[in-house]
Structures are given as C-alpha cells and as structure tokens.
Protein 1
Amino acid sequence: MDWSHYSQTLFDEYTNTNDNLIVYACPGAGKTTNIKHLWTLDDEPTVYLVFEKHNQVEADAKLPKKQGSAVLTLNGLGHRAVLSAVGRVILDNNKVYKIIKDYIKIPEQNYKVKQERIYALAKATQMAKQVVPGLFSKDTYEDMLSVYDLDDYEGMYYDVERVLSISDDMLSTIDFADQLRLPVVHGLKMPQYANVLGDEAQDFSTIQGLLVQMIHADRYAFVGDMHQSIYGFRGAMSDSMQVLQSMFR
C-alpha cells in the first residue's frame, strides 16, 4: 500500500505515542482502510468496533488474528457485558410491547385508538432508551416528541417512565436498544482491551460513547466523516466527533 502523508502521520502517532486519537476524514479518504491498518501495528489486545453486522463479519475474516482481540459491533460489545453479568440472555425485540401488555393499563375503550396508543408508547419508550440514564425528564421527553415527530397522549410521559424502569430492571430478556443501554444503567463489567478502534465515529450516540468509555482501555482511536452521518434516527449526535474528542481526551 502506498500510504499518504496523512496516513503515515496517523500510523506514526499510533506507534510512537499512547495518545487517544480521532481522525476527521473526508469522503474517499480511506478511513476504514486506515483504522484497520492500526490493528496490525502491535500485538496488544484490541477491539475494532463497527456499526453493522456485515461490516463485522467482513473485517473479522480479513484482519489477522490477535490474541485477546475481537471485531465487534457496538451492540455486540454491550451484549457480551450483559451476557457475562446474567449468564443467559433472551433477545426479544418485542420486550417493550410485552411490558406494556403486562403492566400498563391504557384507559381507552376504542380498540383502534388503544392500539395506536400502545404503538405510540412503545415507540417513545424505544427512543427514550437512547437517552443517557438518569437524564430522562419531562423536558427531554418533549424534545424527543418534537425531534422525532412522535405521537402523544395525556399521561404518556409517566407511562414511558414506568415501562423504561421495568425494562431496565429486566436483564434476562433484552432488546436491541438494551444491548447498549443496560451495561451503562447497571455499570456492568465490560470486556477488557488495551486498544479500542472505532470506525464511523460520526454516527456515535452519547450512550454508545459511554458504553465504549466503560472499557477503560489504554488507548482509543476513532475515525469518522462528519458529512456522512446516517444514524440520527438512532440517537446519533450531530456533533458526535467533537463530543468523543472531549470524552476521550
């Protein structure tokens, strides 16, 4: 590979320092190729974090094997922490609907309206799971409704709070959002790595940043392109790279 001056500078920093690194890349700069190369520069236990399962499978097949290392999605990282804490986990993406059915009384006789309210409550709860634990409030709820154009009914905020609380206490059954949220809520022990490599840093949400921070690695390196963010619907921060830079000084 004929590396550019910018790539070589990144590799030199990674090799010769133990500093945390964040790379603001532009389209076509080969950011994924560059961060994959960092994997090869030492023998320390390293985790390479990606967003999509197909990226994880592809990278895991191509990167050289390193003892104590792994290629994981962010959800896979959180899932490992929950699994380690609980021992056996059922992944059920209908978890919130089942909690609503078992614990929440929707005061509406009209079947169609009742189903619409159940759907609205479930959707709002799933979005609330993206909020940093302890920071969900009436104000953040109102902001969430506005940003994501969610339906509301009288008293739904309190129903969201209750469903969220029940869900947070239920570790043996989890859904996709819980894989990120529950390790942060309960301070679960994370897998340990010396190096953390994070791709697509522009798509990190706050809760994903907190999850990765819990690894307490010796060094973090992130790459991203601020013009390519595609996960706003999952709670990705509009200024995620700046936030990560402040979190991992």
Protein 2
Amino acid sequence: MLSGKSTREFSFASAPDDSNIRFTVSTDSHSAFKEKLLSLKKGDTVRLSHIKGDMVIPDIAQGTYIFIAGGVGMAPFQSLLRDIEIRNLPVTPILVQIDHGPYLYEEEFRDKPFEQYRIGRSDIDETLRKVIPAHTDSVYCIAGSPGFVHDISHKLQSCGISRAQVLTDEFKGLKN
C-alpha cells in the first residue's frame, strides 16, 4: 500500500527462497499509483498483505510444465522457473512468452536449457500447434490479462487439454 487508499495486486517474481522480494509492473499507463511506486526510494516502506493465488509447483511435481505468459504475466513464471531450478525439481519447463517485445526476463532465461518461444500474438496458434501434440498430458500454466487467460484456455481446451491440466493467474489491473 502506497497511500491510505492505493491497494494493488502484484505477482511475485522472486522465488520463495530468495532473500529479496521482487515483483514486476508495467509502467506504460503512467497512472498516479505507478508514478508513486516509481518514486519510492531505499528505506521507504510499503505494506504487503494477503498472499493469494495457488499457482505453485508442488514438491511432488514431475513431468512437463508449459508456461504461457502474456506480457507482465511473465512475473509469476520468473518465480516458478527459478523455484524449479533452486529446488532441482524433476520438472521440464517449456516457456511460451507472448508480447510485442522487449520480453521480460529474456536475458535471465536466454541460456537456460529448456525450450523457449518468444512470440507476438499473431504466432500463438502456430506455436501451440508445435507444442501441444507432444505434451497432451502436461500441466499448462497461463498468466496475463483476463481476456488473454480466457483465450488461451479456450485454445488449449479446443486442442484436447482438459481444464484440470490448466492453472491460471489473471492480472486484473486498475487504471488510477
């Protein structure tokens, strides 16, 4: 909370065992809230509360997890991919990052040894046609705007991926 009435939801980009809390925001809107956020200096305080959501990699996870990120939806996947690496989980990640570029965390993941696609919206269908056939029993994680999450979920279901295989994280966003 940055003032008495400015509360927002953020997805953590830090892994659970990281010593610093990291999150990602788009500053394109130049809203009053984001201007205040950007003006924070070392030593300023904010209040965090109520961690919600359930997109986590369980301790018993194995197999392939396909992460489909729309824009700032990459933030929770930064956290999950780091967590997989830190805990050395027997999980094979595949990253599909959809944006107009530049791509969030591209530098951090460029040389990681897992399949990665960085594409624009016009390439979604083609990329899913490449990925889905070999991974019909995988877990699919989608993060982004509500419309993005809905559209990708629908595309996955139309390709035979069951709703039970899909985890989602929607970013509502507020304009003020």
Protein 3
Amino acid sequence: MTLRALVVGGGIGGLAAAVALRQAGVETAVLEQARALEGVGYGLALSPNALLALEHLGLANAVREHGARPERIRIRSSNGRTINEVDLKAAGLEMLGVHRADLQTVLSEAAGESLRLDARVLAVRAEDDRVVAELAHGGAEEADVLIGADGIDSIVRSELHGAGEKRFAGHVGWRASVVFEHELLRGIVSESWGPGGRFGLVPIGHGRLYWFAAESAPPGRSVPPEGAKAALLRRFESWHEPIASAIEATEEATISVTDVYDRKPIRYWGRGRVTLLGDAAHPMTPNLGQGAAQALEDAVVVANRLRDADDVEAALRAYEARRIPRTEVIVNRSWQLGRLAQVQNPVGRRLRDALFRTIPERVQRRQQERIVRTDLS
C-alpha cells in the first residue's frame, strides 16, 4: 500500500518536501492557505549545502539558470575596508544568489499537482493509524504522515508544543530587490558592518540585486513619515559605495521592513505520525543565510527516511534524530553572529573588526565547511 503524506505549508521547505517525497514513492498533498503562489519575496544566497539538496531533488541546474554565482564572500566595514573574506572558488564551494520567487517557481513546477491552494489548516489530530488535517472551508484531509512546514508561526507546531514565545533578535530587517549592476558587485556577496547596522549586497542574476539592511531597533519599527527610501539613504549616506546608489535605484514601494525573530531550539519536533520541517521546526535568524538551506536539507532527509519505511513513526523519529543536532548548532550560531555583528559600542566594534581581520582565510574556510558540508543520505 502506498504511503500518503500531507505537508502543511507551500513555502520553500514544503514544496521541496513534496518533490522529495514523490521521488521517494510517497503520495503527497501540500496544503497551502494562499489562493495563489505569487512571485513574492526578495533574494536568497543559496549556500553549497542548499545546492547539494537541490542536486538530490534534480533541480539544481534549473535554479542555476535564474541566479548569479559569486566567487567571494566579503565582510566590510562601513567605510569599505575589508574585514574578512572567503574565496569560494579556492575552497571548492559553490554559492548562488537567486530571487526567492524564481526558486519557488522551480519547486512548485516540480511539485506539480501535489500543491493545493486555498487550503488553510486549522488543526491536526491523530486517529488510530491516520492523521487528519481539518481545513478552514470545513473539509478534512487524511494521510499516514503529516509534516508541518508552515513557518515560524506554525499551526502544527502549536498543536504539538503550544504557542511558545518567539525570540526577538534585537534588530529589524529592511529588504528590496532592484535591477542594478555595479563593478564593485561582480563576483561578490558582501555584508558591511557599521554602528548598530549592517548592509548586505547579493547579486541574484540577470542584472538584479537583492539588498538588505539590519538596523538595531525595538520591534514594531514602522516606515518613517519621510518614507523608507529617504530614511535609508540618510541612515547609510556615509557608508561605502554602491550602497547609497543601490538604495537610490530602488522603487519606494518595493522596500519592506520586518522584525527579525527566531525560536530557541527544542528537544523534539514531532509526535506519532506528525513532524516538523523548516521554520516550523527550527526558525533561525538570517545571519548565516541558512534558513532555506536547512529547510531543503530537511526535505531530502525526511523523504529518505520514509522511503520504503516499515514503521512510519520510527522513520520520523530517525529523521528528527538526524536533523535536530545539526539545526540546533546553526540556530545558535546564527543568533550569536547577529549579536556580534550588531554591536553598537565603538570600542566593541573596533575589537570585533580587529579580531575578524586576524582570522586566516583557511580558518574561515574550515568554519564555512562545518556548516555547508553535510551528508543527506
């Protein structure tokens, strides 16, 4: 008898899970509350482990067609001085800057008829050897397995663990994508650190740039009366080029601001025939650029565990045992890096920058490899 799975949430992780599960011979339905998958979002810097997961799904080349491959990761000070740099090519590591909407399109096309839109899940419950998802329109879906991939405010997680508290990272994030090219952006993904803020520049292919700014501020930051663009130009006017030029080239309406949260790691994710995936399981700050990568890894590993599984519950617990230690380390490291990068004290910033400048590139490569080298079997 063919195993059937329900995946709650049609984001990057949920769509990847659908692709991986179908390839593993598991009949799959993705329940997504949106009425249409629109090309929303901004950019992503897909790390080598994200591309490895996409290779497992057979989708890496399709995603590569949309993006840009940087050769270096560079951290700068606000005046443009290099604090630290990793030569990706020399390290044998591949990274890809891509628009989130392009990645979503590739995954949704591969997921095909598995995706069901306008299917908001209100609750999940176990019934003997089945699991049931109750839908907002009054119906219900049954399956052998249910995977919550419905984000940081996951309904499935709240059913298993209660609502819990999110952890505010101490900063808000401004983001936008823009058609913009500059000679200082060629082959480089960069992040610049200054007093109480950071600014990232990620080429995402076909002449497009994704930029983000992290600003130390309390939660609930609203767009200033002068507008986001004017406020950001004022905030970063003294920083190195092409930061101000990139902001100037951006349309006001495309700039968004969000509070940055994660959740502290938990000891177990699922129970019975239910488990979690992606931000529902291990929401993390974006400081290591690992959110999408870890969701993609989850998708490959859970499908591998369910492939030809005789005991579904044992397979899900094996998936969690494999994934929880790795994701816990990454959640914590991402949190710590964010706190370090957002240091506001001038003496602290000087000490931080001096420390990073003294770290040899070979050490930086090893640190990168601990995150991006992984076995997805």
